[in-house]
């Protein structure tokens, strides 16, 4: 793959995106899920870890304008717009949980839809580029997306998001439901995208593998950030080791995240 060939590295939008969030609240109607979150997504790859129901998807949806939010969200020092299409125009793309492709449409049609905001000539050019980056998708351009394997579908979903040449790419559990080899492949793709200049914010439950490719990480539990820092340090932190990696690697003997949070005070959020 040749992410370095993508236009966003050379274009006017060459500066790497930096997201800064302060006092973020979001939820569903009267049900507040995220309470007073503060974090930063610096250039590179940032991962958000946390158990089921912690609010990880809610966080990405709030940043993408799919649900209302309050608080401050600054992209390179400017307020992030509230409407999804304006957020996308601002250079932010989301690969949603569960991929959400159009299964009855071909790979090519899915990519075209990903680029619907882009002028037609430019759209053709970008399709050509994402197909260079994912040669498998060129071979499968006419295949119905719904008939592809889980890993291939996730690649289509990532490629579709790359159609807008985002400066900030958000990935919601790209490895969900994939075989171990494909998990590694998808996380490596996220790493390459970050290395090529697109800032990446990724939600993952594959703690060990995600921290191995990320620069920085945060742990979200019950709607609040309980730890954060450089990925290497986070991997060694008590919160992560006790709650997610398990002292003896036996999942049966793992303490619950709530037990671990009580046993270990939260580490500073940086
Ligand atoms: N559309 C919705 N309406 C009401 N509550 C919701 C809705 N979507 C999610 N929630 C609730 O918000 C909380 C956080 O859910 P969310 O999907 O953000 O968690 P998550 O960390 O992404 O979990 P998972 O790892 O299972 O994907 C949960 O209590 C969930 O039940
Ligand atoms: Mg989720």
Structure in a nutshell:
With 270 residues, the protein is an alpha/beta fold.
Walk me through the structure:
This protein is an alpha/beta fold and 270 residues long. It has a domain at 16-100 and 167-263: 3-Layer(aba) Sandwich (Rossmann fold), CATH 3.40.50.300. It is built from eleven helices and ten strands. The protein is globular. The structure holds adenosine-5'-triphosphate and magnesium ion. Magnesium ion (MG) binds next to helix 1.
Give the tags.
270 residues, alpha/beta, Rossmann fold, six-stranded mixed sheet, 11 helices, binds adenosine-5'-triphosphate, binds magnesium ion
Q: Helix and strand layout, with pairings?
A:
Layout: E1 19-28, E2 31-41, E3 45-49, H1 56-63, E4 69-75, E5 78-79, H2 84-89, E6 92-95, H3 107-114, H4 120-133, H5 135-139, H6 150-162, E7 168-172, H7 180-195, E8 199-204, H8 207-213, E9 216-221, E10 224-230, H9 231-236, H10 238-245, H11 257-263
Parallel strand pairs: 3-8, 3-9, 6-7, 7-8
Antiparallel strand pairs: 1-2, 1-4, 4-5, 9-10
Helix pairs in contact: 3-6, 10-11
The structure holds adenosine-5'-triphosphate and magnesium ion.
Adenosine-5'-triphosphate binds next to strand 2 and helix 1.
């Amino acid at each position: 793959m040749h992410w370095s060939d993508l236009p966003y590295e050379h274009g006017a939008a060459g500066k790497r995106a930096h997201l800064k969030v302060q006092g973020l609240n979001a939820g569903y109607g009267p049900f507040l899920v995220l309470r007073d979150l503060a974090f930063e997504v610096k250039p590179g790859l940032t991962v958000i870890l946390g158990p089921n129901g912690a609010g990880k998807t809610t966080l990405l949806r709030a940043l993408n304008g799919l649900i209302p939010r309050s608080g401050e969200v600054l992209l390179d020092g400017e307020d992030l717009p509230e409407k999804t299409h304006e957020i996308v125009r601002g250079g932010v793309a989301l690969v949603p949980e569960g991929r959400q492709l159009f299964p009855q449409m071909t790979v090519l049609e899915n990519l075209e839809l990903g680029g619907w905001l882009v002028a037609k000539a430019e759209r053709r050019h970008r399709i050509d580029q994402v197909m260079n980056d994912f040669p498998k998708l060129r071979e499968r351009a006419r295949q119905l997306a719904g008939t592809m394997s889980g890993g291939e579908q996730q690649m289509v979903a990532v490629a579709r998001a790359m159609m807008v040449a985002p400066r900030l790419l958000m990935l919601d559990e790209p490895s969900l439901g994939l075989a171990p080899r494909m998990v590694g492949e998808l996380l490596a793709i996220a790493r390459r995208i970050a290395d090529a200049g697109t800032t990446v914010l990724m939600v993952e439950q594959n703690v060990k593998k995600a921290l191995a490719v990320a620069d920085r990480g945060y742990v979200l539990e019950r709607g609040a950030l309980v730890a954060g820092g450089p990925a290497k340090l986070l991997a060694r932190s008590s919160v992560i080791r006790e709650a997610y990696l398990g002292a003896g690697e036996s999942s049966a003997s793992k303490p619950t995240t709530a037990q671990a949070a009580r046993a270990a005070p939260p580490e500073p959020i940086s």
